[in-house]
Amino acid sequence: MSMSDCIFCKILDGELPSAKVYEDEDVYAFLDISQVSKGHTLVIPKNHTENIYETDEETAQKVFARIPKIANALQKTYEPKGMNILQNNGEFAGQTVFHLHIHLIPRYDNNEDGFDLKWVTHNDAYDLQELSNEIRKNI
């Protein structure tokens, strides 16, 4: 897949909308359109890299260094009981967008949030812009 076909690169270029949670010169975080649970956030590098295997150390360092800040904002905003941090590599592992991304998935109740290693779309249940505005207040 070329960068011009990458949905996340199109989001970064402003060609597609997103509900931004965090942004700096190297990293962009936004709400996953599927919202496995309330506040489900994706963290991506701004430079295109397909997966962890193709990611250089400097890019990984920048992306992973932002995870605690964003996770703590989600914790402060929604007070989940826990959080899963997930990163898929390759189609077999469930990667569907081939631009490195880390999922931050707040957990509220046992499987009531749709997370049981099955991706259940809840995009009609949440106003993504409203959720992203709430989280940004705590970053």
TrEMBL record:
The active site is at residue 101. CDD domains: HINT_subgroup (cd01277). InterPro entries: HINT (IPR039384), Histidine_triad_CS (IPR019808), Histidine_triad_HIT (IPR001310), HIT-like (IPR011146), HIT-like_sf (IPR036265). The lineage of its organism: Bacteria, Bacillati, Bacillota, Bacilli, Bacillales. GO terms for biological process: nucleotide metabolic process. Pfam families: HIT. This is HIT domain-containing protein. SUPFAM superfamilies: HIT-like (SSF54197). GO terms for molecular function: catalytic activity. Signal peptide: none annotated. A motif (Histidine triad motif) lies at residues 99-103. Residues 7-115 form the HIT domain.
